[in-house]
Write a structure and sequence with these properties.
mainly alpha, Growth Hormone, Chain: A, membrane, 2 domains, transport, single chain
Length: 444
C-alpha cells in the first residue's frame, strides 16, 4: 500500500505554516511599526484585528465553493492571494494602508484552512482524522516558534518592511506544489495506489458499521453527553444545529485567547518585562514550542486513548487555559518563570485545539463538512478580530497587562461552559448483557 496521504499531510503542514507565519508576524513587527507611526495600543490591536475581519468574511463562501468544486483550485489561488498581500504590507506608508492590506490578507487566507481541513477529511480514514488535524494544527505552532527570532533579526538588520517582503516568497512556490501534487480525492491522485485508496475509502464507508470499536468510557461518556447522532446530510441543517453553533461559539472564545496572546505577548515582554528585542524574540517563542507539542499530543490522545471523543481535550484546554491566565497575572520577575508559564500556556491551550476542527467531522458528511467547518472558522475567528482591540483598549485604560490576562481567562471559562452543552457524536458498543436484555447502552 502506498502512503501518499502522509505526503499530502506534509504539504498541508508546510502550507499552513506559511499561512500562519504571514498572519502572525505582525505581533513581532508591531513594536517596530508603532515606533515609526506613533499610535496607541488600541490602534495597534486594530491592525492585528483587521486580518480576522477579512478572514471571517471569506470562510463561508469558501466552504460552499469547496463543497462543490474541491480544494485543488481554490487552495493555490488562496495561497497566491495572501502571499501578494503579505508583500503589500511592507509597502504601506500609513496605518490605514496597513489595515486595508491586513484585511485583504485575511480575505485570501480564509479559504486555505477550509481547504486543508476538507482535504484531511477526504484523505484520512476516521481513526486517523484527529491525528491528521493534530499535525495540521501543529503547523500553526511551528510557525510562531521560528517567527519571533527571525522577525527580530530581519527588522533590526534590514527594517520591519523586509519582514513582509521575505515572508511573501515561500507562498508563491507552495501554490505550485499544491496544484501539482494534491488532488481533491485520493482516488484521483496518480501517486495513490488501489490499496491505499481502498483503505481510506473502505475505512470511511464502514465507519458506521465499525462503531462497535467505540468502547464505552463509562462516567466520562456521561459527562461529555456521548450519543448516537445522525450525520447532517442537508446543508441548511448545519445552520440549525446547536452542536455546530456551540462549537463555533466556544471556538470564538478560545480564538480570542490564542490570537490575543499572539498579538500582545511580544509587546508584553518588551514593555512590561523590559526585555530587549533580541531576548523577546526567543522568549516569545516559548508558548508555541509548548503548543507544537500539545497539538500533536492532543490529536493522538483524542484518536487513540479517547476513541475519537473530542470534547474531553476541548474541556481540558478551556479550563486549564483559564488557570494559566491566573498564573500569568501573578508571575514573579524571573525569566525562567516567564518562559515556563508561557510554555505551559501554549501547551495546555493547544492540547484540545485539534478537537475543535475534528469535532464537526463526527457530525457531518464529506459534502457538508466544508460548510460546517467554514461556519466554525468564520464565527470562531471573529474572536481574533475583537480580542486584540479589546486587549489594546484595556492596556490604554489601565496601563497593565493584568486586566488583559483576566479578560483572556474569562473568555476561556465561558468557552468551557459552552463546550459542556455539546453532544459527543459516538455510538457506544453494547455489552452482551445489554444485547440479551434489549437494553440501550446507558452512555449513548
Amino acid at each position: 500500500m502506498s502512503r501518499f496521504r502522509w505526503v499530502v499531510l506534509a504539504i498541508i503542514f508546510v502550507t499552513y505554516a506559511i499561512n500562519f507565519a504571514d498572519r502572525s508576524n505582525i505581533g513581532v513587527a508591531l513594536p517596530f511599526i508603532q515606533k515609526e507611526f506613533h499610535f496607541n495600543n488600541f490602534e495597534a490591536g486594530s491592525i492585528a484585528s483587521f486580518f480576522f475581519l477579512g478572514y471571517a468574511i471569506s470562510q463561508i463562501p469558501a466552504g460552499f465553493w469547496l463543497s462543490k468544486f474541491g480544494a485543488r483550485g481554490i487552495v493555490p489561488a488562496s495561497i497566491l492571494g495572501f502571499s501578494l498581500f503579505t508583500y503589500l504590507i511592507g509597502t504601506a506608508q500609513s496605518v490605514a494602508a496597513i489595515k486595508w492590506f491586513r484585511l485583504g490578507l485575511g480575505i485570501f487566507e480564509g479559504p486555505t484552512p477550509v481547504g486543508l481541513t476538507s482535504t484531511i477529511n477526504n484523505w484520512f480514514p476516521p481513526k486517523e482524522k484527529a491525528t491528521g488535524v493534530g499535525f495540521y494544527i501543529a503547523s500553526t505552532m511551528f510557525a510562531p516558534i521560528v517567527i519571533p527570532p527571525l522577525c527580530v533579526w530581519i527588522a533590526t538588520e534590514f527594517g520591519w518592511r523586509t519582514i513582509f517582503y521575505t515572508f511573501s516568497l515561500p507562498g508563491f512556490a507552495m501554490a505550485v506544489i499544491w496544484y501539482l501534487l494534491v488532488r481533491n480525492k485520493p482516488a484521483e491522485s496518480p501517486y495513490v495506489n488501489e490499496q491505499e485508496a481502498r483503505y481510506i475509502q473502505g475505512a470511511g464507508e464502514t465507519a458506521t458499521v465499525k462503531q462497535a470499536e467505540a468502547v464505552s468510557l463509562g462516567w466520562l461518556d456521561k459527562l461529555i453527553r456521548a450519543k448516537n447522532i445522525a450525520k447532517i446530510e442537508n446543508r441548511k441543517n448545519i445552520f440549525t444545529s446547536w452542536n455546530i453553533w456551540g462549537n463555533c461559539l466556544a471556538y470564538f472564545m478560545m480564538v480570542s485567547v490564542l490570537y490575543g496572546l499572539m498579538t500582545w505577548i511580544p509587546s508584553y515582554l518588551v514593555n512590561a518585562k523590559h526585555y530587549s528585542f533580541l531576548k523577546m524574540g526567543f522568549v516569545a517563542a516559548a508558548p508555541w514550542v509548548g503548543g507544537l507539542i500539545g497539538s500533536i499530543l492532543g490529536g493522538w490522545i483524542s484518536d487513540k486513548l479517547l476513541h475519537k471523543r473530542r470534547k474531553p481535550t476541548m474541556l481540558l484546554t478551556a479550563l486549564s487555559t483559564c488557570l494559566m491566565m491566573a498564573v500569568m497575572v501573578n508571575l514573579p520577575e524571573s525569566s525562567t518563570a516567564v518562559s515556563a508559564a508561557l510554555f505551559m500556556t501554549g501547551f495546555l491551550l493547544n492540547v484540545g485545539w485539534p478537537a475543535f476542527t475534528a469535532y464537526p467531522m463526527g457530525l457531518t458528511t464529506g459534502s457538508t463538512y466544508p460548510i460546517a467547518i467554514a461556519l466554525v472558522n468564520s464565527g470562531g475567528n471573529l474572536g481574533g478580530f475583537f480580542s486584540p482591540m479589546i486587549a489594546g483598549a484595556l492596556l490604554d485604560k489601565f496601563q497593565t497587562y493584568d486586566f488583559v490576562f483576566t479578560y483572556f481567562g474569562l473568555a476561556a471559562i465561558i468557552g468551557f461552559l459552552i463546550i459542556l452543552t455539546l453532544d459527543e457524536p459516538v455510538e457506544i458498543k453494547k455489552t452482551q448483557g445489554e444485547i440479551q436484555h434489549g437494553r440501550v447502552g446507558s452512555h449513548c
